[in-house]
Amino acid sequence: MGPPIDVSIALVALAPFLAAVMAPIVQRFVGSAAGWILAVIPASIFLFLASFIEPVTHGEVVRASLSWVPIQQLSLSFLIDGLSLMFAMTISGIGTLIIIYAGAYLAGHEHQGRFLGFMMAFMGAMLGLVLADNMLALFTFWELTSVSSFMLIGFDHYRQAARRAATQALVITNFGGLALLFGAVLMHQLSGSWDMSAIRVGDLQLDAHPLYGLVLALFLIAAFTKSAQFPLHFWLPNAMEAPTPVSAFLHSATMVQAGVYLLARMSPVLGGTDMWTVLLMSFGGVTLLWGAFAALKQTDLKQMLAQTTIASLGLLVMLIGYGNEAAIAAMVVYFIAHAFYKAGFFMLAGVIDHEAGTREITALGGLARAMPVSFVAAVLAGIAMVGLPLTVAYLAKEEMYLALQYGGWNLVATVTMVLGNALLGAVGIAVAVKPFLGPKVETPKHAHEGPLGLIAGPAILGIAGVAVALPTDWFGHDVMVPAASAILGEQIESHLTLALNFTSPLLWLSIATWLLALGAFLVLSRARSALRRIDDTVGYSFDAAFDVFMFGLIRGAGALTRFLHHGRLEIYLVVVFTGMALALLVPLFSMNGLEALMPPEALGDWRAVISWPDLTSYEWVVVSIAVIGLVALVVAQNRLVAILSLGVQGVAVAMLFLLFGAPDLSFTQFMVEILSVVILTLVMTRLRLDERDHRPFEDALRDGTIALLCGFGVAATLMTIIAGNFDSSLADFFLETSVPIAHGHNIVNVILVDYRGFDTLGEIAVVMTAGLAILALIRGRRSVAGTTITPPRDPANSEGVKG
Known about the structure:
By secondary structure, this protein is mostly helical. It contains 33 helices and two strands. Helix 15 packs antiparallel against helix 19. Keywords: Antiport, Cell membrane, Ion transport, Membrane, Transmembrane, Transmembrane helix, Transport.
């Protein structure tokens, strides 16, 4: 029996988009309370998803499928298993608190409703991404996260820094989106399915396929751009130009976690190889240390937290690459721990900035008495970031070190993980302690505790970081095991524990991590100065390299545009018709082309294809009229005679249609020729052009040669096609369906109006547009002589006196 189907889970991804549309209307009626009202949507989603915990814990997978593109057998399919449920509940749960926070943070802002709408769309895109089973649906939501984050990062669009950061994030993540699309299409070609669940349980042995490296590279590029892995990490700190609610959501549970989710989801298909392990361990480890050291250099609270997000993402990627059971369990637990303390810390940074007027850690101190609730929330987030016992982060750290033990204590991986965790802990201590303890520092604003909407989120998340860890058996069995099992593709058992085993090397590694974190915190100022001196010495950054790349791209595009679009119509026509001649003649003179176009008996004997026609007398008359028109066109002494001669050829073609039983087509041709001659003649009488086209002999020779080649190519191609076997399948289809489906006996009309309806509509639109352009050109012509030009009025000159 297949998995249960619940179409209602599709609403989880679609409901936030509906709320996004309603957000400005809600804000207009209720004002600053809009955040509390809109938060009902993600809260309801969270509670709805919670109802799936029990069946997912028992190994069930719940699906929903909506018809999307039936002719291509595409369905908008969604899936809830342990992994998608963990991500979706984290997104909706933290999203509830951040929507409330955003309503309070932007209270009184003229565009608060629009901002809340963008936030809800951002949430909907991320929920759709983690619940999607179809790879094309996943790509669609993947790109929606990029678009919605672009609007959020650039929300303060009047600031150049915000616009630049939004553009940078969009360019880099969209580059990864293209890689994801190519990877999904290639995966579909190899597996025959668009659904990731079907690919995971199928018989595709991708690791043995010659294209494995290419598929892996495409998915890694997609994941690394989204999750800010080195060297594509630099867009994430710049995204701090967004309002703080965006930073809190983006860094904890949404966009940057999309790459981690993709790697985890595709691990059963792409993982388990040396290439997978080496690449993820290498890039993840470098990203971990790079972000951790970069965080030490910062003094802005949001920048410190942003750099630690880069480090944490590197740690998650490193754990996925390590791949053993403990590493995947650590990845799951650390994802939840990081979401709790990072969202709380970012919201606290916003509270401090909102109520004290600055985020500079060197300009803060002694806020604990003025902001006691924020201080307690900061301490709870800090001990989680350090990974002290009784927190979810402690369980994650223990699982990380257990993974190292299972892996044989790889020296590089052990040093990287311990050092990275220690540096993250040092930053956590600094953010939790520096602003609140020590001597009171005068701040730009009189510091005081924030309103309920601002402090509720950090307080709840700080408590959750401890409260979720205390029922360790429940947390391990109902949360960690289903998610880790979904990643590994096999059922595992939970061994999470808060007990301290002083004989275990894992605890001693944790103690070493805590001591290193404390030591790094004590020398934080000196470390910051040393790291900044190194930066000044190097004088290079990936962010600056991006600017150079974009500058070169824009300059190159401008040069290419000037080269291709120089404004000389004559050159355009020469290029177009030369390309046409090549496209016609190269296949004809190529053996492969001849085999494709000509019947075998005609190969090498052009007389079988191009022979003297057997025409009747009246057909010869029509051909003679066409030849007379051609000769008249070539020898015409002025443009007006050439236009009339061209009309003679058109009339000859219309007569051929009439003789061969296509009166409607003949009538159309007659109308086109009459209109063409009339319109061109009218234009010629209104434009100031020379009577003759004075061209050098070499230009005339060039154009004549190209014209002859094009004419010969068209004639030879048509004759070659006619000489081949006629495939009547399309004609038979029209004959069989014209009356029962389109209710028309005139098959030509049915084809134009029904089968090619949009094509015909497009042709009509083109003709109409051309007619309007010609009409505007004719009516717009005005006499220059005697025209009076009135200078614009000077706004500073109220009298309107000419200067």
